[in-house]
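Lecture notes, unit on protein representations.

Consider one protein chain, 236 amino acids long.
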Amino acid sequence: MGAVAARPAAGRGPAGVAKAVLFDLLSALLDSWSLWDDIAGGEGPGRKWRFEYLRRTYATGAYVPYLDLVGDSAAAVGLPRELSRTLEARWDELAPWPGVGRVLREIARDRPVGVATNCSEVLGQRAAELVGAPFSAVVTAETAGCYKPDPRIYLAGVEALGARVDDVLFVAGSPLDVEGATEAGMRVVWHNPAGLAGRAAERVAVGVLRDLASLPAWLAARGQNPPGIRAAMHPG
């Protein structure tokens, strides 16, 4: 745990200090997976529901009501559509991955941090508050008018941080997010505490972390592999 695999991405080298950091919210910073599993009645149905939701969300493009996507995804895998309302009611049970708030507060001492999330405005803002970090920007799919991987939501996050694309590091939470942010012209680190499979995303990302506590050292080293941080091996 805590290891970083730092390697150049095709066309997006690691040179240069990140002047701002933009994060995915619901996978990179919050353990939303556990809540979905609990609502669905176990990891098996929870993961089927969540992966169907991710598939639909990343194929949607223009914004449609978030809870409609969640409910449609549940129904598509044989779960009650009403689970979307259960998720809404239990939303504040979302919890950050261990140490995330502390790490982001440390990073925010030197540069602005923000999130770009595939979520409604109300639920996205509520989720961001649960992280316990001083965000300079919270950009949701609803305010951007589109879902990731549409480049506009990533670029809206960059603009909200008052930076240029080349100066912002994006911390993704899923393989689809890695690919989307890269296509938007960003350098991407993948925080993968859930152990998701994604070898193609690992090849594209400039770094892969299983523990976000490694990120400040990674940033301090300007994307190079700092002493004491070994290359990580990842399942999948």
